[in-house]
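hiii, so i know i said id send this last week but things got crazy w the move. better late than never?? heres the sequnce for the chain we talked about at the cafe, plus the structure i predicted for it. fair warning i was half asleep when i ran it
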Amino acid sequence: MSKAIIKYDLDNPDDLMEFKRACKANDMSFALFELLYNTKKGIGYEMEGKEMDKYDALELVFDRIREIMREHNIKIDEIVN
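okay and structure toks below
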């Protein structure tokens, strides 16, 4: 059985950022899955029968992205510098 040990120096800002990214990898994977496989259909149902211009439609899409990020406790400012 293969094993890996990853060590981070949490006093080093770059290592700390990498550590935070590694810790959020599972949450980010679930959020991406939700975005890629479920969001389009859900937004399509939400838009059905509504008159929307492209800006309202874009706002709806980005609101859903932000909601998914919140649901998975992903704070992008903490994992991207």
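btw Residues 27-79 form one domain. thought thatd interest u
miss u guys!!
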